[in-house]
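Subject: for your reference before the review

Hello V.,

The reviewers asked for a structural picture of the protein, and I figured it would be easier to keep everything in one thread rather than splitting it across files. Below is the amino acid sequence we used in the manuscript, unchanged from the supplementary table.
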Amino acid sequence: MSFFSLHFSKKPRRLFVVIGLGLTTIMSTSAIGYVKTASSDAKSTGNNGQPISSTVVIDKVFVDKSDRILQLLSGDKVIKSYRIALGDSPVGHKQQQGDERTPVGAYILDYKNENSIAHRSIHISYPNAADKARARSRGVHPGGDIMIHGQMNGFGHLAWINQQRDWTDGCIAVTDNEMDEIMAAVKVGTSIEIVE
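And here is what came back from the structure prediction:
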């Protein structure tokens, strides 16, 4: 038996233990960072983790793509804010199907989907007439199926990782618990404004 095989045959368990501990440390640190960020975001926007009162009427959803924030408003008052993930190519207005951009503009939340491929969703009325005309003039399909949604079904437990990056095909993603809260608070027909 060679020195190489003898030396490494005794240490594979140690190697796996060291690798396992390293990955656990990295994941724990990331999870703690996510919780701290979410907690500080909640405090800075006045959410304090409180549920939205059923007496509050949400009459507008506001999305700031550059700040990665979705806000529920009643009149001019921000009732709740959420950290969001966007499309893989988030900068700029959606131009066509497959560009992975989240649209910019004024739309309506026109229906809710309880049987979504992600944990629940609310459809955004993209493309509007102007979006369709712009795409037609360029000879492309404008795309569609832009939603506010939770995590992909079966992957809700990975939200602490997923929400650290833009990962959708142009939709606006939140955690599953946040999506449950948004679904309960926002009625079909509510306006949504998305800005850069």
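For the response letter, the relevant points are probably these. Residues 28-46 have pLDDT under 50 and may be disordered. Strands lie at 60-64, 69-74, 77-83, 105-113, 121-124, 147-149, 172-173, 191-195.

Happy to draft the paragraph if you're swamped.

O.
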